[in-house]
């Protein structure tokens, strides 16, 4: 049968954390009112050197390959193979809510909604993590743009241009702005599907420290001065994680 929802998971060497995400997705698939076969799971593998692809295949996922080391290209490669009328994206180190697909499907029946995000709660908390979380809330409230599962209709994903493959980071924010503009032009909006928040990984905090975002904010203008400094930051923080 043709699936109603395609969920895309961009992956690079995610053998350690991918199984728990896939377990949570399977729980949500079985809870979906349209039946588990109405949700296809696509792992977009970015030339992993570990067992990421083998794990995905063993769990019944479709695996597509993307060798371009840009997260936008990896997301787009998964979306290009999607068969569902709704496309969704989730990071491999997250865990989805059991009611995810029911919540997404309900929003996507509404003509006043162009797409949205589920938001997230953290897998652990500390003072530094709580402060970081709180710092982003005003932006989230003002824009209705959040983290977690990103979802929209496939036709709108294509109309918005997909993810910018030239960017090493912030491609998700750029996409949401494009989706917002698309919806605004026809009277629809982005939503926060807070009833289906994901559990977000804290591995960046584990690696760089619970207060490291304050340092990033202070150094941010320096990183943006040139492509060289910007790319060096992206490589250290996202593209060369040592896994």
How would you describe this structure to a colleague?
With 243 residues, the protein is an alpha/beta fold. Helices cover 44% and strands 17% of the residues. The chain is globular, with a radius of gyration of 17 Å. The mean pLDDT is 94.
Low-confidence stretches: none
Class from helix and strand fractions = alpha/beta
Query: Can you give the mean pLDDT?
Result: 94
Helix content: 40-55%
Main beta sheet strand tally, sense and closure: 7 strands, mixed
Give the SSE string: EHEHEHEHEEHEHHEEHHH
What is the alpha-carbon Rg in Å?
17 Å
User: Which strand-content bin applies to the residues?
Assistant: 15-25%
> CATH homologous superfamily, by name?
Spore Coat Polysaccharide Biosynthesis Protein SpsA, Chain A
Give the number of domains.
1
How is the CATH topology named?
Answer: Spore Coat Polysaccharide Biosynthesis Protein SpsA, Chain A
